Known about the structure:
Blueprint: E1 5-8, E2 11-14, H1 18-23, E3 32-36, E4 42-46, H2 53-74
Antiparallel strand pairs: 1-2, 3-4
Amino acid sequence: MIKTISKVGNSHGIIFDSALLQLAHLSPGDEVNVEVHPGGTITISPIRTLPSDEVVTDLIKSTMQRYGRTMKKLA
């Protein structure tokens, strides 16, 4: 895929269209790691973070509230 470097304010950037973001499972505001390799190759990788313990606990609680009876029957 060929992209053009554009001027963005006092900096420069590469514009990613929606289709490319979808393919990469990225959204505006996501953080990425940018690496420059010998020879000038650039790699852009998404930074994936794990949910906090609090978020996981809340998800478990809401799942149990919603499906608790069903889970007890299946156990």
